[in-house]
Amino acid sequence: MISDSLNYLRNDEDWVKTVLIGGVLSLLSVLIVPTILVAGYLVRVVRATMHGDEQPPAFDEWGDLAVDGLKAAVIAIVYGFVPTLIAGVLVGGAVFTIVMGDAAGSSGLAALGGLGILVGLLVSFVLGLLAAYVIPAAVANFAETDQMGKAFSFGDLRPILTSGKYFTAWVSGFAVIFVGALVAGVLNAIPVLGLIAGGFLGFYAAVAAYYLIGTAWGELHDIEMRESEDRPDEQAAI
């Protein structure tokens, strides 16, 4: 599947154009709007692949793309809020303990504060990793239903998140993104080239990762089977 994901964009004869647009938008991500557009494209990738469509989507209908991207960004922010909040509280409390320990001349309080910082960072890392695991599934549930609320429906998400297929797809996607980041890091030895290549590699890797998520989601939900079963009924009704 990793091989298929890496070749996914190349299934379109205009794949170079798609990568160029996605790479440029990724390089301009500091402006926020380009990030939203890339997120919208990734939603399209998930929506297409969960239906078994091997043809990559195009960068078009920019208004719809922005709406999907904004919704995906909100989903990510909501899931990332709790780890960030907990990390802030724990680390902030630990820093306060260190300050109080220094003011009181207590090495014990300072040591306790230092331990608190380590614990806070560890807890935030674990929760952040958990959020990163949930977010693609939440985006996929939104992409399938076009309902924002479904992104937070734990009844829908729980069987997906605990399945081996989704876990394998997520780990594979993470590996693709990680390797892409490593290559970009090596290319950073050439400052300008490294920065530019990083944007394009990051986009390409993200698309490959979300291809894996969408494909796994479609297989777990039997989307193609359900649609083929529904189609005769619709024709009969007509």
From TrEMBL:
Keyword Nucleotidyltransferase tagged: no
Keywords: Membrane, Transmembrane, Transmembrane helix
Domain of life (superkingdom): Archaea
Transmembrane segments: 20-43, 72-99, 111-135, 167-187, 193-213
Membrane recorded as keyword: yes
InterPro entries, A to Z: DUF4013 (IPR025098)
Record's protein name: DUF4013 domain-containing protein
Source organism (scientific name): Halogeometricum rufum
